[in-house]
Amino acid sequence: MQLNRSIQYNDKSNSNTTQHNNFLIVSVPQSSVLGPVKFAAYAVDIVDLIGRHGVRSHLYADDTQLYDRCKLDGVPEIQSRLSGCVSEVAQWCASRRLQLNADKTEVIWFGSKANLAELKAAHLSLSVGSELIRPVSVVRDLGVLLDAQLSMKQHINKVTATCYYHLRRLRQIRRRAGQELTTQLVLGFVSSRLDYCNSVLSALPQSTIDPLQRVQNAAARLIFNLGRNEHVTPCLIQLHWLPVQFRSTYKLCVMLGRLHVISLMHCSSRLQE
Known about the structure:
With about 270 residues, the chain is an alpha+beta fold. It has two domains: about 35-145, no CATH class; about 155-250. The protein is built from nine helices and eight strands. It has helices spanning about 35-40, 45-50, 75-95, 115-120, 155-170, 175-195, 205-225, 235-240, 245-270; strands spanning about 5-10, 15-25, 55-60, 65, 125-130, 130-135, 140, 145. It starts with a strand and ends with a helix.
């Protein structure tokens, strides 16, 4: 496929900007919608490469995650398999004119507080080419912060701080915007962040989720222009807002319901065959 792409550059000889059209025989223009699709097709065989090491993988566009599980006595083995897999992935990238970016590569070990305390004495780093990647305590996965104990406190603190920032900005225009417009703005800037990937918050202790519930209460008070000490439950009912804890449960129920319907349709089609 041949694509027409216009690029601009400065001609230093006469300080004029000249526009040229170049034809691409390979690759796609930067920011093109074809980029993720073409890259996924280009890198499809990396899954087989990772599987040969007995390591599980998850791919999203150009983001590749390797993961596995083990007991404490199996840490050296899994570390060896991961190191070997990463080294072969680096060679695979080099053979396809790709570069494995060590600066964006992170390693994290998940476990209970007691197990992580025992792991601190071990050498848990991984080698990526000539770089040594040391374990971190928090990683970012598609906008969700995952800490080593999976307490989700780092993620909740980040979401809470971002929501309060937008609530403070919206409070400055509340009087001029009115209730209807304020409701739409709160839904776009605050509620969307409370609902994003909230299924990972299911079954967490209430004390952990309380900061998000306080954000929702503050959003309802902003919409109805209530004081800090006024009761907010009637406002939540009027807005048809479920409490934060039940919003994550509701999303899980919807997802499981859809999976159940899809599985029934699949079984029905197989039986008809």
